[in-house]
Design goal:
The structure holds 3 protein chains of 3 kinds. Chain A is built from 17 helices and 16 strands. Chain A is globular, with a radius of gyration of 23 Å. Chain A has 3 domains: 2-127, NADH:ubiquinone oxidoreductase Nqo5 subunit (Beta Polymerase, domain 2); 179-211, no CATH class; 219-532, Cytochrome-c3 Hydrogenase, chain B. Chain A is α+β, with helices and mostly antiparallel strands. In chain A, helix 6 (243-258) packs antiparallel against helix 7 (264-292) and helix 14 packs parallel to helix 16 (518-525). Chain A has helices at 2-22, 46-56, 111-122, 219-222, 228-237, 243-258, 264-292, 296-317, 337-362, 365-371, 379-384, 389-394, 401-404, 425-448, 498-510, 518-525, 529-533, and strands at residues 26-31, 36-41, 60-68, 72-81, 86-95, 100-102, 125-127, 173-174, 179-183, 195-200, 205-211, 326-327, 330-331, 465-473, 476-484, 490-496. Among the domains of chain B are: 619-660, no CATH class; 673-712. Helix content of chain B is 68%, strand content 6%. In chain B, strands 1-2 form a two-stranded antiparallel ribbon. Chain B has a two-stranded antiparallel ribbon with strand order 3-4. In chain B, strand 3 (556-559) and strand 4 form a beta hairpin. The radius of gyration of chain B is 28 Å and the shape is globular. Chain C is an alpha/beta fold. Chain C has 2 domains: 32-86, Alpha-Beta Plaits (2-Layer Sandwich); 93-229, Rossmann fold, CATH 3.40.50. In chain C, 22% of the residues lie in helices and 16% in strands. Chain C has 7 helices and 11 strands. Classes of the chains: A alpha+beta, B mainly alpha, C alpha/beta. Chains in contact: A-B, A-C, B-C. The complex binds iron/sulfur cluster (2 copies). The site of one iron/sulfur cluster (SF4) has 12 residues of chain C, from helix 3. One iron/sulfur cluster is lined by residues 33, 48-49, 51, 53, 68-74 of chain C.
């Protein structure tokens, strides 16, 4: 119990400090078992609290959760400290018929999109936010109908606006001859649906305006009222290329609500597959980067490796994208010792070839020319936008949830977090490669100490409660918030995904570079739109 | 018909028109102008045509001031060629003006316009027929001032006043240079007529020749838009009423060329070939600079003006090459280069007039000249669009229109540099060729931009959406010019001999046989053409049309030596036939193949956008921005404003940027001069402190200085 | 650059033998449930399926492939007979009678549209163009513009926001044209079903010609679907094809 007390001490210190800083405007409580420090404050104190937490204590923003109950609105701003590995939860409440909160986006810029989303989906007004509207819900949706409200029935197909809707994007570039270059929503060969408007005077992109949520499937809404066993299917299917990571985060949340301790073996095999997924995901990002620069042979090589990884997944986990593997309480399939070593051996084989590809790419000057000094995000911007994952790590923000908030199993593995400082396309490519290497290392460490326990512990029933589950998904930090009601059904499911966080900062990289660099910059981000749109 | 009679009738008629014009009301003026000016142009066409085709010449005196200075005139084929082009330009422009000037009544006096318009016409004819210095200079000055007044016609606009004054200043500077040049030439000539100047020039020393050559080049270069004395040109062309811009570019620009040919090439015959190289290089630099600024320009008329600089550069490049060839004794090559040069001048007058008329029409109907604000008007102004397209293709030097023929000839003559011996001159030719090639490429970009950004796509402003087709009397002149562009493009073999008659005295040799072999008139046994030569070309089809068609043939071909009988050959006449056949064949095949298919026409695929807004399409500036980026070393854009307004730390409300480019000529030539003036003025000003004692001291010091200097002299 | 050429040569040919022979490499497909006869006492397995893909037909349990989301729960339930799961991949089937034979059979241009797919389907589609599957050798090409496309390949349940762009893309295609729905989502809405944000399948918007079930369908199944369309392979025989519905054009 040494660890427990240590955490207790840290939490206590922190809460004391917060009390000291914010004097009497807040109530602070701590939950050592959840590594959580909760701050309850009223709406007026919110800006001060956020400012102090971010600038004085140095917390990073994790997620914002809006909840509606019968009598009040509750917004939780979740921060975390990567230094002392704890979560800080700021809670503000407002009466149900007064859906108005101050906008925090000028203090924590990462909240910009979160607030815009909540405004569209819940109809909450964030006072002081400069750009609201036309975010999740596009022009066809009538004003004043907010799908995340309790009263909204998700099964009904939506009645669209009567008249043919008009759509007028907001232009901010004022220069003679300026125009907007539309890209999408259906564009290039095989691409996810999203729309980008590039404001330009030709050649250089001056401002890029992404327009997302073409793929909005309302995952958070349709999860409501479902059993966790069903929701886990949604959790892995809303972003198929990071399915395992997201189902894992969801499982973490519900397991912590149920108070279930997952057997050690399940934890280890989860790490095994989570890292394997990261490995595959990064190879596919590398392929996309090679493809965007027109380096056909390298792209083919990466595609070969990706397909081999997919086949390995299918062989050992039964599904090419690791669907159906995670279930609350453990895994649906066990791996024998031989399976594990076989998997590792063949992964190693892929790794060797990946390493060779890396060496070759490093010496292809025409390839590097297109990546170096392109799509730069500086450290300061990355911090301000709260970027996560490989994108942030390429910009000098060495933040990895596996280290910052070590979750089950990662306390005991040794690995390094690759970090680069240039923040350009090449830095991101290097991070992808090095992380892929690290992942295989983690896999081999876990297999070494695989314990002999059951793989699954059934969860009989779910008590009422809420919890946050988090993982470092291949693209970065993901936070899943789940609240379960007395019937054992999910009544609130909140997803903050790395793609959502990072797309917010994408415009920083695209601006100031030429048109022809745009697809390359897009590829070096390695983000999924499905993951962002949900 | 005797041309002297026509000459008199022309002047009497013009004088009558001027006088009558003074008394007409503004409402009647446009039609009157169109009517009288067309008749004048037809008279001039007749007169110059008569002289050009029959070779009639005319010499005479207007007025004898004293035995030394006689105001005299002379019409030879060179001047009649220029008069012919002038008349060709004036005729359609005059008809067009009847419609165009409708926009002015009530705001500006149309009588003034009509009078000046005629006066300018007369002065141009006088310049072209002047046979002595005084007549030449007098009429030149009249022309300069009328031009200034016409450019400044919309006199109450700040911008016009500035560009008018700049034009006047530079014209006068040019005039001074020319005058000084004449003074040098006239030293010891005994008479001021051109013939005696020419004789006298042989006696002058090298230095005087060089100095006068340069003075003339600069003086006439002002009108021709030669770098570095062309700063006024884009501004003035843009300020002038569009019908007058057409004249400026189609007729008065040619006067600069005429001056250079008449004086530099004809009178100053015995200068070394170095002078030719100067013209060559200046020409090709002008061409490149002109087109670079044309590509990046958004204002349609300014763009056309910059392109005039480019074309004048191409003309002068040909001329320079011709001079070099002539001074080195390659008369045939010289002749070809002169022909290329003058052919291009003819073409430029035709298509540039056409384009200016088109631009004027667009401005009239959309009230804007900014291509960024146009777009999609092809559907609204189909005929104007079609004619503009013809002009654009011609000026972009694409076959089968006329620009192609003359640029092709210019290139070919530059490529003949191998005949020269001096290495530096060869290098100069190679560089000029490279610059010209770049120019030609950029010209295509420029006019693709001009046409597509104005006529195609979606209208980018309310103004462009309101456009309507021009009335018939404005379309007709454009159609006429477009037709001329096509004819001079596909029938070069009929035009080259005519130009040759005008250039033959310059190059000392007629080259018509070398360039347009008389395939139609040859039977097997000709002394000039060997049997094999004819039979080879007979097999190739060069004699198709013999006995049916008039003329010498349809192939432009430069004959080299025995060893290498054909240096280059081309026939746009056949090209067009093949083109028509091919297009017809494709059309018929496609029709047959898709006979059974249903054709559905859908809107353009925009990636699934809800609607493609006009501001989502390329603007002219955007289209040409890559050129601006590539040549940023030349443009040196300076960002005069780059501000961002923000809501709060990370939210931008607006990005405002403005870029400014100072024209390279202004930057390198005009600004240093201005700066020097200012500095001297400031130094001089600092002497004036206002104290009487100091002034007294100045007086004493100067007195002493004068005394000392006087002592020594 | 020569090193890349060498690298390519060194790697050799990786391409699958399908459709000439059967691909036997492990891991190319996750397989699928097949119609099976269940003993009375094992009927509870039916209730396991989260999307209700099982249908009782007397004693036989039919599988509605357009509903199976490959959650593998039936397979992993202890009651499930091993014979109920086959490891094949030729499970695409044609919904309408339309085929693209003749000139199209070896030259088919495909525009892929993402109607809200989770990206796994899209990755599988792009794998078909990669060395292991290489649909170019079969004469199938991915094209960026629907103007040049013969086939519209749609993945995902078609979200409400993608309805309009999808229709636009279909409208922009020249005749003859076919629609291929890839993935369970595109066939029935899959796990997302039909809701305020999702149409519940492509057939709600456009007439579907070929259905390729699977979540996601492996590349070989996608190739199979295209081969059916061009009449080069037979379709899987399914008892009750979903109606090719076509609502508001
Ligand atoms: S795999 Fe899952 S969805 Fe498919 S039939 Fe089995 S249980 Fe149903
Ligand atoms: S069918 Fe499955 S894999 Fe395909 S998009 Fe839907 S959820 Fe994703």
């Amino acid at each position: 119990m040494v660890v427990e007390t240590e955490i207790y001490k840290k939490l206590h210190d922190l809460s004391e400090r917060i009390r000291h800083l914010l004097t009497n405007s807040v109530t602070v409580s701590i939950e050592p078992e959840n590594l959580l420090c909760s701050i309850e404050c009223n709406v007026d104190a919110l800006p001060v609290v956020c400012k102090q937490l971010v600038s004085r204590i140095g917390l990073s923003f994790a997620t914002m959760i809006v909840e509606e109950s019968n009598e009040e609105w509750l917004i939780q701003y979740v921060f975390y400290s990567s230094r002392i590995h704890i979560l800080v939860n700021v809670m503000v409440r407002q009466e149900i018929d007064n859906p108005s909160f101050p906008s925090m986006s000028s203090i924590v810029h990462a909240l910009d999109w979160q607030e815009r989303e909540a405004e569209d989906l819940f109809g909450i007004v964030f006072e002081g936010h400069p750009v609201l509207g036309d975010f999740v819900l596009h022009e066809e949706w009538p004003e004043g109908v907010n799908p995340m409200r309790r009263t909204f029935r998700p099964e009904m197909p939506y009645p669209h606006k009567e008249t043919r809707p008009e759509w007028q994007p907001r232009r901010i570039l004022q220069e003679p001859g300026a125009f907007m270059m539309p890209i999408g929503p259906i564009f290039s060969g095989i691409s996810e649906s999203a729309h980008f408007l590039l404001e330009t005077v030709g050649e250089d992109v001056v401002r890029s305006i992404p327009r997302f949520f073409y793929k909005y499937r309302g995952v958070e809404k349709i999860a409501e009222g479902k059993h966790p066993m069903e929701v886990v299917l949604l959790a892995e299917r809303f972003a198929g290329t990071s399915a395992f990571a997201h189902s894992l985060a969801f499982c973490h949340a519900v397991e912590s609500i149920a108070g279930v301790e997952v057997p050690e073996r399940a934890v280890q095999i989860r790490i095994l597959f989570a890292e394997f997924e990261r490995f595959r995901h990064h190879i596919s990002c590398i392929e996309a980067i090679c493809n965007s620069t027109g380096l056909a042979v390298a792209a083919s090589q990466a595609a070969i490796l990706e397909e081999e990884a997919l086949r390995l997944s299918c062989e050992f986990a039964g599904h090419r994208y690791l669907f159906g593997l995670n279930i609350p309480g453990g895994l649906s399939k066990d791996l024998s010792k031989e399976d594990c070593t076989g998997l590792l051996k063949r992964t190693d084989n892929i790794l060797k070839r990946l390493d060779r590809l890396y060496k070759m790419l490093q010496y292809s000057s025409s390839f590097l020319d297109r990546l170096e000094e392109v799509g730069i995000i500086c450290t300061e911007d990355a911090i301000d936008y709260g970027l996560v994952g490989p994108v942030a790590r390429a910009s000098g923000v060495c933040n990895d949830i596996r280290k910052a908030l070590p979750y089950k199993g990662y306390e005991n593995v040794e690995f390094s977090v690759p970090c680069e400082t240039e923040g350009d396309g090449y830095a991101r490519l290097r991070v992808f490669f090095q992380e892929a290497f690290q992942s295989v290392m983690i896999m081999s460490q876990t297999i070494e100490r695989l314990s002999d326990e059951p793989i699954y512990i059934p969860i009989k029933d779910y008590p009422e409660g809420s919890a946050i589950g988090w993982v470092e998904a291949p693209a970065g930090a993901a936070f899943h918030y789940v609240r379960i009601d007395s019937r054992g059904r999910v009544i609130r499911y909140r997803l903050t995904t790395p793609s959502f966080t990072n797309w917010h900062g994408f415009h920083l990289a695209a601006e100031g570079f030429a048109f022809q660099d745009f697809p390359i910059i897009l590829a070096t981000f390695g983000l999924s739109i499905a993951e962002s749109d949900r | 018909m005797d041309i002297s009679l026509l000459f008199e009738v022309f002047f009497i008629f013009s004088a009558g028109s001027i006088v009558m014009g003074l008394f007409l009301s503004d409402r009647r003026s446009p039609v009157f102008l169109a009517f009288t000016a067309s008749i004048s142009s037809i008279l001039l066409l007749w007169l110059s045509g008569e002289s050009l085709f029959t070779g009639q010449t005319l010499h005479g005196e207007f007025y004898r001031i004293s035995s030394l200075s006689v105001l005299s005139y002379s019409i030879d084929r060179l001047s009649s060629l220029f008069m012919f082009i002038t008349a060709l330009v004036y005729l359609p422009v005059s008809i067009y003006s009847a419609g165009y000037l409708k926009k002015y009544p009530g705001r500006y006096r149309l009588t003034t316009f009509s009078v000046l318009y005629h006066l300018l016409f007369v002065s141009i004819v006088l310049i072209l027929t002047a046979a002595d210095v005084v007549t030449f200079l007098l009429s030149w000055e009249v022309m300069s001032i009328t031009c200034y007044l016409l450019v400044n016609y919309e006199y109450d606009k700040e911008e016009n006043i500035r560009s008018g004054l700049l034009m006047l200043t530079m014209s006068e500077a040019g005039f001074l240079a020319v005058t000084v040049g004449f003074l040098i030439l006239a030293k010891g000539a005994g008479s001021l007529d051109f013939a005696s100047l020419r004789l006298n020039s042989q006696k002058l020393g090298d230095t005087s020749l060089w100095v006068s050559f340069m003075l003339f080049l600069i003086g006439f270069g002002v009108k021709a838009g030669l770098v570095p004395v062309n700063a006024w040109l884009p501004r003035a062309y843009a300020s002038a009423p569009s019908n007058f811009s057409a004249i400026l570019s189609g007729a008065t620009l040619n006067l600069g060329i005429y001056g250079i040919i008449r004086i530099n090439a004809e009178i100053l015959q015995s200068v070394t070939h170095g002078t030719g190289v100067v013209v060559l290089v200046a020409g090709s630099v002008s061409a490149l600079v002109g087109i670079l600024y044309a590509v990046t320009e958004d204002d349609m008329k300014r763009m056309l003006a910059h392109s005039s600089i480019e074309n004048s550069g191409i003309i002068l490049t040909g001329l320079g090459a011709g001079l070099v060839f002539r001074e080195t004794g390659h008369y045939v090559l010289a002749g070809i280069a002169f022909i290329a040069s003058l052919y291009h001048m003819v073409n430029h007058s035709l298509f540039k007039t056409l384009l200016f008329l088109g631009a004027g029409g667009i401005e009239l109907k959309t009230t804007t000249r900014s291509m960024n604000r146009l777009g999609g008007i092809f559907k609204l102004m189909p005929w104007t669009g079609l004619f503009f397209l013809v002009g654009a293709i011609s000026i972009a030097a694409l076959p089968p229109f006329n620009g192609f023929v003359s640029e092709w000839l210019s290139f070919q003559s530059l490529l003949q540099a191998s005949a020269l011996r001096s290495v530096p001159v060869k290098v100069a030719f190679a560089l000029s060729g490279a610059m010209l090639a770049l120019t030609a490429g950029l010209a295509v970009t420029c006019f693709v931009k001009a046409f597509s950004m104005s006529f195609l796509g979606i209208a980018r402003s309310e103004d462009a959406r309101r456009a309507v087709e021009l009335p018939f009397r404005m379309k007709l002149p454009m159609g006429f010019l477009a037709l001329l562009c096509l004819i001079s493009g596909i029938l070069p073999t009929y035009i080259i001999p005519v130009i040759d008659t005008a250039t033959a005295p310059l190059s000392h040799q007629s080259v018509v046989d070398e360039l347009v072999p008389p395939f139609f008139q040859l039977s097997d046994g000709s002394t000039k053409f060997s049997k094999e030569f004819i039979s080879d070309f007979h097999d190739l089809g060069a004699q198709v049309g013999k006995d049916i068609l008039p003329g010498r043939g349809l192939v432009v071909l430069h004959r080299g030596t025995e060893k290498n009988p054909v240096v280059y050959a081309m026939s746009t006449s056949y090209t067009i036939v093949v083109l028509i056949l091919l297009i017809g064949a494709v059309y018929i095949t496609a029709n047959i193949l898709t006979r059974k298919r249903k054709v559905t026409i859908r809107t353009c695929w925009n990636g699934g956008l809800r609607q493609l807004l006009p501001e989502m399409t390329y603007t002219a500036t955007g289209f040409s921005n890559p050129v601006r980026v590539i040549f940023s070393a030349i443009f040196r854009p300076s960002i005069v404003r780059d501000t961002r307004t923000i809501f709060s730390s990370r939210f931008r409300a607006a990005i405002m940027r403005e870029r400014k480019e100072i024209h390279i000529v202004d930057r390198l030539f005009i600004q240093p001069v201005l700066k020097a003036f200012r500095t001297t003025a400031r130094l001089a000003a600092s002497m004036h402190t206002g104290s009487v004692n100091i002034y007294a001291m100045y007086v004493i010091i100067s007195l002493v200085l004068v005394l000392i200097v006087g002592e020594f002299i | 650059m020569s090193k890349w050429v060498l690298k390519g040569l060194e790697t050799g040919v990786k391409t699958t033998v399908y459709p000439e022979k059967t691909e036997t490499a492990s891991g190319v497909t996750q397989g699928r449930p097949e119609r099976l006869e269940l003993l009375k006492d094992k009927r509870s397995v039916v209730n396991i399926c989260p999307t209700g893909a099982f249908k009782i037909n007397k004693n036989i349990y039919e599988i509605d492939l357009t509903r199976c989301i490959h959650c593998l729960r039936c397979l992993r339930s202890p009651e499930f007979p091993p014979a109920g799961w086959t490891g094949d991949y030729e499970w695409a089937f044609s919904v309408s009678e339309k085929t693209m034979k003749g000139p199209f059979s070896h030259c088919l241009h495909i525009r892929v549209v993402d109607g809200g797919a989770c990206r796994a389907c899209l990755c599988e589609i792009s794998q078909t163009g990669a060395p292991y599957y290489n649909i170019h050798r079969l004469g199938f090409f991915i094209t960026p513009t629907p103007r040049a496309a013969d086939v519209l390949m749609v993945a995902g349940p078609v979200t409400d926001h993608m309805r309009f762009p999808l229709k636009e893309a279909y409208e922009a295609m020249p005749e003859p044209r076919a629609v291929v729905a890839v993935g369970t989502c595109a066939l029935s809405g899959g796990i997302f079903g039909r809701s305020f944000a999702s149409s519940g399948g492509v057939s709600e918007i456009l007439p579907v010609d070929i259905a390729i079930p699977g979540c996601p369908p492996p590349p070989l199944a996608i190739i199979h679907g295209l081969l059916i369309l061009t009449g080069r392979r037979p379709s899987l025989s399914v008892i009750d094809k979903p109606e090719s519905r076509r609502k508001d054009k």
